[in-house]
Amino acid sequence: MSKTAKVKDQVVRLLISAGKAAPTPPVGPALGARGVKSMDFCKEFNARTAHVEPGVPTPTLITIRPDRTFSFVTKTPPTSYLLKQVTGIDKGPAKPGHETLATISLKHVYEIAKIKATDDHMSHLSLENIARMVIGTARTVGVQVVP
Question: Which of 57, 39, 59 is nearest to 47 (CA)?
Answer without folding.
Answer: 39
